[in-house]
Amino acid sequence: MVARWQPSVVDHQQPGGWVVAHCKQHFLADGNGVLFPREWLKKQELPVVAEHGIGHFDGDAVYLLELAEPFEMASCSWQSLRQFMLQGDADTFKLLSYATQVGTWAAQHRFCGSCAGAMQHIAGERAMHCPRCALHHYPRLSPSMIVLVTRGDEVLLARSPRFVAGVYSTLAGFVEAGESVEACVAREVREEVGVEVKNLQYLGSQGWPFPHSLMLGFHAEYAGGEIVMQADEIEDAQWFSVHRLPPLPASRSIARYLIDVYVAQRLGMPEPVLPS
After folding, report:
1. What is the pTM of this model?
2. Architecture of domain 5-108
3. Which of 3, 58, 147, 156 is deepest in the core (most CB within 10 A)?
4. How far, in Å, CA of 38 to CA of 16, rounded?
């Protein structure tokens, strides 16, 4: 089956197609969704920062308008990317996930970080070029680890103050310069909850557009130590039985996948598939 959404570099000099309007992880939407006739929307008075061709949806070209600020339009509203993750269909979320990462990159790389010259989009490539000092910028990816720590029939889950009320999740953190992902797993677990881990197993990865993470998912076994929560980062952390779990992250997240895989293994159930 051919995927409905296929990302690619599309020439934004070409007319026609559909367009999504993005600003700070929110998208303009009406009763028909987030795709608007491109030529019609561009005739509106919009605070456009950049325009990029981002791919094809059901065979039609799709473009992105990155805006400096939201604007009011009759019969339209602004919806967050998280709303689409929780409530929208998978193909639309994939489109918007890609669009928000390209849009964030475009908004943050209008000027060269080396000489402050105005950047130019390179035709046919997802890259920005500085004509003054020849520096190139590509969309940013921030590698992060995410890990489920287990102890027999128990899983170690924690809450950040930023989480939805009541929800517990796996531990996660950004990879530092010069650090392996495996070293990052051990360090972050130690820093956030004070325990040691062993027998790391890589399970898969997921692009996480909040705003530009690449989550590398692991399972790790408990090796020792008592839970000591990191101040200002961890609100609560506990061992939970696989038979009595708290409210968990969204089903499309790699955090939920790591939990569901282990629960399925312990209970002898079919293992889930990582959302693409």
Report:
1. 0.91
2. Alpha-Beta Complex (3.90)
3. 147
4. 6
